């Protein structure tokens, strides 16, 4: 298992049900963590968690050494490494998405913005850890954001090209599919909460919490997205000579005109992994090994139980997280029944070492019960300046999002 965040902790723990797992580099909160680089570890299967190493071609290097790898090569990972290229592939594949344009100069970008109705969406072309997207109802703010991104001031080279999109309205759903190059099997849908504050206020983050299943996102929706988006995308990639073996994560908005793909990611979502994977009722190592070998035959199964995860973040996240604070109560929280605590920004001696520090997952027969268990465990944990949302998977919030 390559990586060291909450997603990788969740993957390692679910892979660990049937396999022996080492995590590189992991973190002091993830059992089996090692500083040995992946190239120097002898394993039957390599699972690459984060987008960075995928975009950098780690899967290609491991495959060149004869290893079995779950995760796309650099060619396929470009879906996430360049939003402009992703939009080209979506257009080729005929996948419904938001109207958009790609720009490197302020004037034409501004002119395009003026042709779109609010809300306006401005994205960095390159990777920005989930923080490179502005959604705003202020045209002035959108124009200022274009200038800040294109100048390199806001996101360095990742922002020197921007994608401008029409804002879509509707509930968001994440659908993660395991792909073997030709076939795709969907995992249970999840919904994440991107904004820092309660009521979806404040800046976009990497994700502050998630839940699964998603009321209103049943088998019909999943089948439609697989048929109309995921499989045509795999075909479009294959036509470009790309054999995509890994997770294809479709970020969807369910508009009044049907589902639209906002983006693809090329790996498990974080924090979606922390709710989708604990619900798995099959052998994850087997499933990922089949996909890595180009020969998917298993169908993933899920328990009916719901899962809710709440992210605990450091003071100052997402702009300037403070690190080095002592975390209290982690063992008490992790010892509760039906609760898992996944470690992300955790340093030696149980101190904070990153922006998103922990993800606390509760499971139960309903979203309400799962949510109650997650928040009861959250109440065990404290450190100076800890922040979290109090409305993850709240019924009111789900209603406002139009899901029930
Ligand atoms: P992305 O990194 O493209 O998923 O964007 C991050 C977040 O910005 C998404 O999860 C949405 O909440 C929001 N977003 C992105 N594109 C749009 C859009 N076209 N319309 C409305 N919201 C969007």
Question: What do you see in this structure?
Answer:
This protein is an alpha+beta fold. The protein is built from 13 helices and 22 strands. The chain has helices spanning 6-15, 51-55, 58-64, 74-81, 83-93, 106-115, 139-150, 219-239, 273-276, 284-292, 330-334, 367-378, 395-400; strands at 2-3, 23-25, 33-34, 46-47, 69-70, 100-103, 120-124, 133-136, 162-166, 172-180, 184-186, 191-192, 195-197, 201-204, 209-212, 245-255, 258-265, 306-313, 339-343, 346-347, 351-352, 356-364. Strand 13 (195-197) and strand 14 (201-204) form a beta hairpin. Helix 5 (83-93) packs across helix 8. The two termini are 37 Å apart. Adenosine monophosphate binds at residues 98, 121, 123, 130, 133, 135, 165, 167-168, 172, 194, 204, 251, 262-263.
What does this entry show, briefly?
The chain is an alpha+beta fold and about 400 residues long. It has 13 helices and 22 strands. The longest helix is centred in the middle third of the chain and has 21 residues.
List the topology elements:
Blueprint: E1 2-3, H1 6-15, E2 23-25, E3 33-34, E4 46-47, H2 51-55, H3 58-64, E5 69-70, H4 74-81, H5 83-93, E6 100-103, H6 106-115, E7 120-124, E8 133-136, H7 139-150, E9 162-166, E10 172-180, E11 184-186, E12 191-192, E13 195-197, E14 201-204, E15 209-212, H8 219-239, E16 245-255, E17 258-265, H9 273-276, H10 284-292, E18 306-313, H11 330-334, E19 339-343, E20 346-347, E21 351-352, E22 356-364, H12 367-378, H13 395-400
The structure holds adenosine monophosphate.
